[in-house]
Amino acid sequence: MTLRIDVHATDGAARTGAVTTKRGTFATPCFMPVGTRGTVRSLSSVDLEDLGAEIMLGNTYHLMLRPGADTVQALGGLHGFMAWPGHVLTDSGGYQVFSLNPKVSDEGAVFRSTYDGSEHLLTPEGAVAVQEALGADIQMVLDVCPPWPATSQVLHDAVERTAAWAARAKVVHHKEGQSLFGIVQGGVDLALRAESAQRTVEIDFDGYGIGGLSVGEPREKMLPALAAAIGHLPIDHPRYLMGVGDPIGLVEGVALGVDMFDCVLPTRLARHGTLLSSTGKVKLRRAEYGTSDEPPDLNCACPVCQRWSKGYLRHLLMVGEVTGGRLCTIHNVWWTLQLMKDMRVAIAQGRFEVFRNKVFDVWGS
Questions:
Q1: What 3-state class would DSSP assign to 204?
Q2: pLDDT tens across 81-126, in order?
Q3: What is the SS3 assignment for 264?
Q4: Is residue 64's pLDDT more than 70?
Q5: Cα 333 to Cα 57: distance, rounded to the nearest angstrom
């Protein structure tokens, strides 16, 4: 077995524990910072270690095009390439490909590179081969991610093709020490979510991603769809909600039993000068912060809040100094990782619902 999850404590459906691979272990529930092109933008691998990240995400679509999977493999795979000792999960590239309106057939998806316009075919087998070359600890199957909103026929076709592609991926995946996760689709159709989960579990993967959510649908439709999928996933395998990273989404996902998350939101907000804090969003570009000598968050122990003021960070952002975006990114990644750590403690102590309500008090409006 290349991967297992050990659940140490539960509180309702929420659970905390650890995932173990041949590389080591990482605590759950966890948030994976997104390293689209082999780095979390403006941060180094040393930064991620110092911030306490145990696992990060690499983007297959971008890495297969620049610098190419063969180049990454020749330089030691993603771990050697990035000099990153922690875990790496790679997505299949499907989300990015389907955002480009590809020509889709049973064989795969034909798309054009956003870098040079060249045409490429991504198949389930090809996605496995690329991710094996990238050397991730966990790779994802190629799936069909339908848009929001989508017709019943589009959702049905996505579930059918995702299941067929998942089976093909399982057949060709053989890399020792690398786990393969299946993906559940179905939009916000509860019956399709349940069907997709059951069919994916029948193929038997090391873990299960729930994809196609947080793509524009309202939260009151997302959460029942997520619950419908999780209800048919095995308790002894990791569950990964793909593309969710806002505080409410994280705490609601954990409440339903999700173990893993990823999202570009914390780093994207940081680059635009918006910080996550114990009192909500802090939009540093506002004039009111120009002479503020307070840290971004009085309750935050990150290296940025321990040293610099809102006024200084605002200055850096207003003059276009790249250090501003970097410091904001350090804060937001630390803050999100700390949120996950606090959730793990709350679950272990049997007070997750109290913690969840506190998050809603700040972020629920």
A1: coil
A2: 999 999 999 999 888 888 888 999 999 999 999 999 999 999 999 9
A3: coil
A4: yes
A5: 13
The predicted-structure confidence for 71-83, as pLDDT tens digits, reads as follows 999 999 999 999 9
Q: Which residue has the tokens 């771990």?
A: 79
- The tokens of 89 are what? 């999960």
Q: How far apart are CA 318 and CA 274, in angstroms?
A: 13
| Token pair 């040393």: residue | 46
Residue with tokens 């299960």: 208
Per-residue tokens: 10? 């539960």
Mean pLDDT over each residue of the chain, to the nearest integer:
97
Write out the catalytic residue numbers. 91, 262
Query: Token digits for 203?
Result: 């193929």
Q: What's the alpha-carbon Rg for the chain, to the nearest Å?
A: 20
Tokens of 62: 């971008």
As a dihedral over the C-alpha atoms of residue 208, residue 364, residue 273, residue 260, rounded to 10 degrees, the angle is: -10
Q: How far apart are CA 360 and CA 185, in angstroms?
A: 28
pLDDT at 238: 98
